[in-house]
Amino acid sequence: MDQTYKPTPSAPIIRLMVLETDKPHPDTYSERGSFGRIIHSHFAKAGRAHRPPLGVETDQVFVVSEQGGRVPTVQEFDGFDGLLITGSMYDAHGNNQWILDLLELLRALWIKRPEFHFVGVCFGHQLLARLLGGSVGPTPSQDWELGHCRIMLTPVGRRLFGTREDHVHLHQMHQDQVLTLPTSASAGHELLTADTEVLCWGRSEHTPVQGLYIPDRLFTTQAHLAFDEDMVKRQIQMRVDRGGIKDLEHAGQAAETAHLEHDGVEVAKAILRLFMDDKDEPS
């Protein structure tokens, strides 16, 4: 279902296809809808806060075929400016058939649509790193990064977010991470030219690669942009109930930080600028 926010008739409109790789907690779904609808609401808010305002149109496809979803065709992205891959409980380094099919789709879009933009959140961040030849897997310590987290910004990150601060805060919920940055050598010449550098915009003590950036092409974030307090608590509990998170003390401490303010709108604004005349300059 297409969703639209148009601040003014003359506002630039960004059309984004959201590839849903999981389903939210049932209570979150009843209150806020699917991850695609949650992403739409968040980016519409960021579009309103952007200067000048930006309109956002989204559509979404649930791609987990083993749960009744489907991976779309390349042709279904006609008319869209880019895509966003959501977070998921699945492993981005896994070889589920739908993950392999999704990688094939992403590769085809990357090669056939040089003007197309790629955005990934958590699982999506890791999957796009995998696409470009980066290594993805569990953190060497095997522990989780959970809850409200300070991310230290690289110079690229400070430019992207238009801040003189050396950090931003976002909510985290992951054990896997990007272990090595993609390079033109790891991606192959079909995907990245020899002079293309995949930049890292932030790091934390737990996760050295918090996000990837290629000007006018790619923007990923390991952390979640659109989680609110209830979502954080519910998603943590889902992982505890399913046995993914075994350190209950850590889970409880993380849940206690769910109410803290974070910079998800500022990061979303920076992502929207990827679709404009992307010069690393904030608006």
UniProtKB/TrEMBL annotation:
Q: Which GO terms describe its cellular component?
A: cytosol; nucleus
Q: Which InterPro entries match?
A: ChyE-like, Class_I_gatase-like, GATASE
Specify the domain of life of the species encoding this protein. Answer: Eukaryota
Keyword Transferase among UniProt keywords:
yes
Recite the UniProt keywords alphabetically: Glutamine amidotransferase, Transferase
Q: Which SUPFAM superfamilies match?
A: Class I glutamine amidotransferase-like
Q: Does the keyword Transferase apply?
A: yes
GO molecular function list: transferase activity
Question: What are the Glutamine amidotransferase domain coordinates in residue numbering?
Answer: 115-224
Q: Protein name, please?
A: Class I glutamine amidotransferase-like protein
* Protein source organism: Aspergillus candidus
